[in-house]
Write a structure and sequence with these properties.
The chain is of the alpha/beta class. The chain folds into five domains: 125 residues, 3-Layer(aba) Sandwich (Rossmann fold); 95 residues, no CATH class; 51 residues; 202 residues, Rossmann fold, CATH 3.40.50.300; 107 residues. Helix content is 45%, strand content 18%. It is built from 20 helices and 18 strands. The chain has a six-stranded mixed sheet, with helices on both faces. A six-stranded mixed sheet has the order 14-15-16-12-17-18, sandwiched between helices. Helix 15 links the parallel strand 15 and strand 16. Helix 9 runs antiparallel to helix 10, helix 12 runs parallel beside helix 14 and helix 18 runs antiparallel to helix 20. The longest helix is centred in the C-terminal third of the chain and has 43 residues. The protein is globular.
């Protein structure tokens, strides 16, 4: 059990949280949410012993094993597989002891026998297979797991660190933005793994779909306090909306009461016959616990400026191949035919390395074009967001300095107001951007892109580093955006909200994805089954050691497909039901965003029914998701 009692944490003179108390037990998966800078990472640092609480008591069983994702990895010559296995410290301890005993000639000693029993107890003999499974789940392909750590890029090293944390047989697992460096297939795999985790999970994430899939509780940091909600993120939103509505109703009622009492006091406090009653009511006012007006703090209130021109055809690619000149591997993608017209809203799906970013670069400026034709309308204005653009900000310049390059004729008051919509205010707009966080830099780059009034937006992972409030503000702004849009994102909520069409980038080509986003996991499963077909007959042998003919291989594969078909059909049927229920839930959620329903007393019964219906659908979704997980695992085990 993990216990916090009246905890307070300060950073310098800033109070982050105070009087925080809650408990977490094995099997609970808690999502920690709140605005950037609210204290989430500081709370993790306190739990890990890297930061001391300013007040309160922290209760942790000294035998409990913590696991967390290291933010850096060594420039090591060890293989990725060995590096991940190092996450199980007890495994390495037992291995070292066994090696020492064996080298000392103690092969038949009781001590060595005890060590072997201990190795069996901790599943040490399957450790390498377990580590390999973690790495494959997180996107490492084939022999890549045997490459030295130092040969991996920063993003892949973070995946290694995540796998190493999962390898640890922990009692308490702390994950801070675990999906940041993952593509969607890896995120889907991680969700399934975490649902089976038996310890206490605390996860910081700004991915609402991830929080919905994984979490059984939500801890919300706001106004230096933490409030615990039962359920996933969507259930938290519904509960909070209901509480805010009740709070607003109570606030309104109390304000009327205060006005009535104050009016009585003002009329009669100097009248002798009524003075005592007036004084009594005045004391009543003084003792009254004031209810604050309900509101949700969000510093982001921006929208896209209407493009000056909106040509019908914005950009066309004809028989295009994209890649990098001089590369021995040749084109990354070939035979691309793509026409972007006004109002198109396209989402790109595909694993990391499939070529999504390479395609978007070709759309943006043609820099990755190897052959074919890229035709751009003379009136097309492209707004291109990619993570490398955060590094193009001039470190010594301020947000307002950057904005002046794009809006030199705007008055300073207009520039300040504009930046304020993106959460920059006060002296912050005049400070150099060098020490800004990744989220602040991403917000500034988005602000600069929007100010240029593009009619074609190309967004490559725009939500990385953004908190939930900014992600929601961006989704709302993109829904209202009148131009065309191409977006790469692992944020499924964003893709669902803003995209009308999905393209899948895979195996060197770009295809139209004629399914819903919720059916993407099933498509991935089908691809895995397809890739499992033997493609080189000479390498396959029967149990007798004889080579199989191509006909025998085809017969084997046909039998395998026939055996898997009922299970695959069940998975697909559950996914169809999930899609239908999620569509119904989206419709209900939209109705519950109508402020009028909370303000109108006559619609209280309607509100109650909507919330009941929402709860019932969420319960159905939870059951279906559990059924889907069991069916998928059964399919995996049979493959």
């Amino acid at each position: 059990m993990l216990s916090l009692k009246k905890i307070a944490i300060r950073r310098g003179r800033k109070l982050l949280i105070e009087n925080v108390s809650f408990q977490a037990h094995a099997g609970q998966r808690m999502g920690l949410i709140g605005a950037n800078g609210s204290g989430k990472s500081s709370l993790f640092a306190m739990l890990l012993g890297e930061l001391e609480a300013d007040d309160g008591e922290l209760g942790i069983n000294p035998k409990d094993q913590f696991a967390h994702v290291a933010q850096e990895s060594p420039n090591s010559t060890a293989s990725g597989l060995d590096y991940v296995m190092d996450g199980d410290s007890e495994l390495r301890e037992v291995e070292t002891a066994i090696a020492k005993a064996e080298s000392s000639g103690e092969e038949h000693s009781a001590g060595l026998h005890t060590l072997y029993e201990r190795m069996e107890h901790i599943d040490g003999f399957t450790a390498e297979a377990r580590a390999a499974k973690l790495l494959h789940g997180l996107g490492f392909v084939g022999d890549a797991i045997h490459k030295p750590v130092r040969e991996f890029s920063g993003g892949w090293r973070m995946r290694l660190n995540l796998a190493r944390a999962l390898m640890c047989r922990s009692d308490i697992l702390l994950l801070d933005e675990p999906t940041n460096h993952l593509d969607l297939p890896a995120i889907l795999w991680l969700e399934r793994w975490l649902k089976r985790y038996e310890g206490i999970l605390l996860v910081i994430s700004h991915d609402r779909d991830f929080l919905d899939e994984v979490c059984t509780r939500i801890a919300h940091i706001e106004h230096q306090a933490i409030r615990i909600f039962t359920g996933n993120y969507s259930q938290f939103e519904a509960q909070r909306a209901e509480q805010l509505a009740q709070q607003q109703s109570m606030y309104t009622r109390q304000q009327k009461e205060i006005k009535h009492i104050q009016g009585y006091v003002d009329r009669f406090r100097y009248k002798a016959s009524k003075a005592r009653q007036a004084q009594s009511r005045l004391k009543m006012l003084e003792r009254m616990t004031l209810i604050a007006p309900a509101h949700v703090d969000s510093p982001f209130r921006f929208h896209f400026i209407e493009p000056k021109k909106q040509p019908r055809n914005l950009l066309t690619l004809t028989d295009v191949a994209v890649g990098y000149a001089g590369s021995e591997q040749g084109p990354v993608l070939s035979n691309i035919k793509l026409n972007l017209a006004a109002g198109d809203r396209v989402g790109l799906l595909g694993v990391n390395g499939a070529g999504k970013s390479t395609l978007v670069k070709a759309l943006a400026d043609g820099s990755t074009l190897l052959s074919g034709e890229r035709l751009l309308s003379k009136d097309t204005r492209i707004g291109y967001f990619a993570q490398h653009q955060l590094d193009l900000l001039i470190p010594e310049q301020s947000p307002i300095d950057h904005l002046r390059r794009y809006a030199p004729d705007d008055r300073e008051s207009e520039q300040r107001n504009y930046l304020g919509r993106f959460g920059f205010s006060g002296e912050r707009i005049f400070e150099p951007v060098a020490p800004f966080s990744g989220g602040e830099k991403a917000r500034l780059v988005l602000a600069l892109i929007i100010r240029q009034q593009p009619n074609l937006l190309l967004l490559d992972e725009p939500t990385n580093h953004l908190d939930l409030e900014m992600r929601q503000a961006l989704s709302v702004a993109l829904i209202e955006y009148s131009g065309a849009l191409v977006v790469i994102s692992h944020d499924r909520h964003l893709l669902r909200s803003v995209c009308d069409e999905l393209l899948i980038v895979h195996d060197g080509i770009v295809d139209r994805f004629n399914r819903s986003l919720d059916e993407y996991p099933a498509w991935l499963k089908e691809q895995q089954l397809s890739e499992g077909q033997p493609d080189v007959a000479e390498t396959d042998t029967s149990s007798s050691g004889k080579q199989l003919s191509k006909k025998q291989l085809r017969q084997q594969e046909a039998q395998r497909r026939q055996r898997l078909k009922p299970m695959l059909d069940k998975v697909r049927e559950i996914e169809k039901q999930l899609t239908a229920n999620r569509t119904s839930l989206d419709s209900l959620d939209k109705r519950l965003t109508d402020e009028a329903i909370y303000k109108d007393p006559e619609r209280k019964s309607e509100l109650t029914e909507l919330i009941k219906e929402q709860t019932a659908i969420k319960s159905t979704i939870d059951t279906l998701e559990w059924d889907w997980m069991e069916a998928s695992e059964k399919l995996e085990d049979t493959e």
